[in-house]
Amino acid sequence: MELSRTEDGLDTLAAAIRNCRKCDLAGQRQHAVPGEGNPRARLLFIGEAPGAKEDRSGHPFIGPSGKFLEQLFAEHGIRRDAVFITSCVKCRPPSNRTPTASELTTCINNWLLPQIQCIDPKIIVLCGRVASLGLLGEPVKISQAHGTLVARNGRRYFISYHPAAGMRFPKIAAAMRSDFKILAQLVG
Ligand code: SF4
Q: CB of 15 closer than 6 A to ligand 1?
């Protein structure tokens, strides 16, 4: 799909994602969740997959981990309406299982990469192990790599934890706060 860097391009993608049946995850979803935010965002946040609340509503990061993410944004002077938030796969895996390699590849190649092309962000924030694997194409040990910037295929990726982990574990929350401090400086 040939797309220009415009809001129209993102809207076209979102409409196609909502009707997508390219992998088995389509069968059990209530809503595909294309993602939301500023079409010209300098920061693009990528999580793993929609959870139960996102599946019910069609909106990204609206559950407790979304609240934690918003808290991190507020603490570091990042406005939610200045970023774009999405996930590697757009449909909720049953019982929140990890997406399979095939589901990841299918959804990333068909939808996430074109979304990145449209938004053309300054930095892509990979939230957790699955997003890092999906976009960098290799396993990443988040406890070692978090807070670092990786250049790959002409893009800059910043590695951090998934907010769901930060919400559950105080040590990870502290690590995320230090990551976001670096991120706020990078995006300046
Ligand atoms: S997860 Fe992605 S590829 Fe699979 S059906 Fe949903 S939108 Fe399509």
A: no
Measured in whole angstroms, how far is the alpha carbon of residue 131 from the centre of its chain? 7
In contact, 80 and 158? CB cutoff 8 Å:
no
- d(CA 46, CA 161) in angstroms, rounded, equals 11
Q: Whose CA is nearest to atom 4 of ligand 1?
A: 23
Strand pairing report for 155-160 and 149-152: antiparallel
- Residue spans of the domains in the chain: they are 7-187
Which residues in 119-141 are b (16+ Cβ under 10 Å) and which e? bebebbbbbbbbbbbbbbeeebe
Nearest atom within ligand 1 for CA of residue 99:
1
d(CA 136, CA 152): 7
List the CATH code of the domain at 7-187: 3.40.470.10
Average pLDDT over residues 16-44: 97
What does the mean pLDDT of the chain come to?
Answer: 95
Confidence of residue 44 (pLDDT cuts 50, 70, 90): very high
